[in-house]
Amino acid sequence: MSNAPDILDRFVVFEGLDGAGTSTQLEMLRDALQQRGTPCFATCEPTDGAIGKLIRAVLRGELEVSGCTLALLFAADRSEHLYGSDGVLAALRTGGSVACDRYLFSSLVYQSTDCSGEYVAAVNARFPLPRWLIFIDTPPEECQRRGGPPRAPGPFRPPPRPRGPPARLPAGNARAPGRCSTACRCNGACANATAK
User: Fold this and answer.
1) Phi, psi dihedral angles at 64 (to 5 degrees)
2) Are the CB atoms for 144 and 150 separated by under 8 Å?
3) Cα(150)–Cα(152) distance, integer angstroms
4) How far is CA 172 from CA 25, 121, 179, in A?
5) Cβ(138)–Cβ(22) below 8 Å
6) Helices 67-83 and 50-59 sit at what angle, rounded to 10 degrees?
7) pLDDT per residue over 52-101, tens digit each?
8) Residues 5-63 pLDDT 10s
9) Residue 42 in contact with residue 27, Cβ under 8 Å?
10) Residue 119 exposed, middle or buried by CB count within 10 Å (0-12, 13-18, 19+)
């Protein structure tokens, strides 16, 4: 990997259930910072890169892989996302901020349902943490209401209740949200947290 620090300054991660409002909050932060003259790059995981597209094909049910293979794909996508020539570290080197919709915390929860939590933690152990982790805490019923009718089951659309970080992180995980410089939980049910 790289000589990246354990915690990346100016790196903000939004986590929450599907439909919690993470994308909306990310866009609001990016817009507010840019209006103040501070560059902010918005990104997400899985990415739109080659590995991220493969992951999206798995999530849509177009390709079948084991849970541990999916965990490895997410880790590979994350590595490119961080260390690639146009990745998070490159953006941070320009002096701007980076806001990301989902990061390794999602992997610790989602991939741990189909693969050992210790395995998932191990393949993500070397990735740096964000300076800020913001968990949009939205009731599952509200997330489902925002998303419209229930979707087909899948790694990110499990019935009957959605799951999401950090409600259930593998026990004893050193990469838990408390290890970030600042982790906070925000009420996602308020009007300003509406998901798009």
Assistant:
1) -110, 130
2) yes
3) 7
4) 29, 10, 12
5) no
6) 150
7) 999 999 999 999 999 999 999 999 999 999 999 999 999 999 999 999 99
8) 699 999 999 998 888 889 999 999 999 999 999 999 999 999 999 999 999 999 999 99
9) yes
10) middle
Residue 98's φ and ψ, nearest 5 degrees, are -130, 130
Q: In terms of Cα–Cα distance, which of 128, 15, 118, 111 is closest to 66? A: 111
Q: Which two tokens stand for residue 118?
A: 């210790």
Omega within 30 of 0 (cis) for the link into 149: no
Distance between CA 28 and CA 99 in Å, rounded? 10
Outline where DSSP puts E strands in the chain. 7-16, 40-44, 97-101, 129-137, 182-187
Q: Which two structure tokens, joined as six digits, stand for 163? A: 């799951």
Query: In the CATH hierarchy, which fold is given to the domain comprising 7-193?
Result: Rossmann fold (3.40.50)
Render pLDDT for 107-162 as a digit per residue (tens, 0 to 9).
998 898 999 999 999 999 999 999 999 999 888 888 888 774 344 444 444 333 34
